[in-house]
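Hey L., structure's done. Input below.
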Amino acid sequence: MGKALDTLKEVRIEKLNKLQSLGINPFASTIKLDGKLISSQDAKQSIEKDVLCAGRVWGIRGHGGVTFLDIKDPFGTIQTLFQKKILGDKYNLLDLIDKGDFMALTGKVIKTQAGELTISVSEFQILTKSIRPLPSDWFGLKDEEERYRQRYVDLLLNDETRDLFKKKAIFWQSMREFLIEKGFLEVETPVLENTAGGADANPFITHHNALDIDLYLRISMGELWQKRLMVAGFGKTFEIGRQFRNEGIDREHLQDYTQMEFYWGYANYEDSMKLVEEMYKYVAQKTFGTLKFEIDKHKVDLSGNWQKIDYRQIILDKTNIDIKTVTDDELKKELQKRRENYEKTAERGRLIDALWKSIRKEIAGPVFLTGHPVEVSPLAKRMEDSPEFVERYQVIIAGSENGNGYSELNDPIDQAKRFKEQEKLREKGDDEAQMEDNDFVRALEYGMPPTSGFGVSERLFSFLAGKSIRETVLFPLLRPENGGDTK
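Output:
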C-alpha cells in the first residue's frame, strides 16, 4: 500500500500547490467569513436562517453544476449545497477539495426535496488542506496496535471510541464533583520524589540535573504527602492525577495511569467503606446511566448494600488453608497446585497475597474484602483486638481489585518498624517493597489524627466499560515503529 499511498499524497500536494498559485492559503490561521460560528447541531435548528459553520469534509457528491459536501464537526454532520449559479467561478475550487479537508462556509439552512436539512452555501473558505487521505480511503486501521498508534484517526472514524472517552471524562468529573460536595479539598502533591512511597511497586527513576540527584516518579497519588496534610490540620483532601509503576502490561495494568486518592481525618475504614459505596454508585450512574454491568462473564449489580467478606475466611473456605497458621512451604505448594507464579525468594506476605489473588478471580462482587494480615499492609492500622490483622478493605468487582482503603497507621514507632521490615525485603531483592521514609515518620511523631484513606484507579472505568485498560487510554505507550517509518 506504500506506493498507492504515495501516489494519493502526490495528487493532494499538487492540489495544494494549485491553491497556493491562486493566492489561497491552504493552512489558514482564522476564519475570514462574516458571522458567528455555530455547530452543525445548532445549524439544524436554524431553518431559513443564515449561518456560519466549519468542519471537516466528510463526503463529496457532484452533479454537474451542483455539489453536495457533508461537513463534520465535533457535534455531528450536516449536508451542504454548492451551486455554480450562486458561487460563479469560485465553484471550480471544489475540484481542489478532498475528503478530510477543513472548510468554513456561510449560507441559508434549507430543507431539500428529500427532506434533509442543508446549508445552501453562499460563501466558503478553505481552512486546511489534508495531505494524507483518511485510512478508510486506502487501507483502514487493520489491527489493535494500529488503532492505538493512530488513535487520532481511530477517534475520527469511530463514534464508539470517541463516546468512550467522553464517558471517561464524565467518570472523573463526577468523582471530583462527589468528593467536593462531601467537603473534600482537591490538592496537588509532588510527582517527583526522593522516596517512592505509598504503595508496593517498582518505581521509574529519573535524574534532576539542577540538583544533580536521582528521583523517583510517584507510585501513589501522594499518599504520604496527603497524610502529612492531615498532620498539618487539613480534614479532608483528595487528588486525581497520573502515577507511574515500572511493571508489566496486561488487561488490568499500565505503567502510567490516572488514580484518585482521598484522606479523611477523624474517620476509620468503616466510615470510608460507606462513602466509597455511595461514590461508586453515584459515578457509575452519572457515567453509564446504569448500576448493572456484565464484566468478563461476571454479572455485577452495584445497587443494594454491598457485602463484606473476610480475607482469612475466604481463603480458608476456598483452600482449607488458615493463613494465620500455614507455613511458607505449604503456601508455595498450594500456589504450585494452582499454577500460580511466585518469586522463589518471596516472603510470607507476597505468598499470601499471591494465593488471595488466585481466589479473587471467582468473585463477581461488588464486595468489600476486609481482615487483611499485617504482612500485606505496611501502611494500615492494626486491629485492636487482632493486631496481626489490619483495618483495611478492598473493593472486589469482577474478580479484581477495584479500590483499596484502610484506617491509616498513625503510630510513628510502629510505622518506623514496618519501614525497617520493608527495607530488609528490598535488600533481599524485592523491588516492590516500600522504601523507608524518615521524614514521614517525623511527621507522624508530631501527631496525625485518626485518618482513613482510599485509592481507585482508572481500572474501575475500564471494567465498567467492559474494555481492557489499554483500550481506555487515549494514547497508550507503544514501542517506536520500525526504522521510524511513519508511512
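The two ends are 9 Å apart (CA to CA). The longest strand covers residues 50-63.

-- N.
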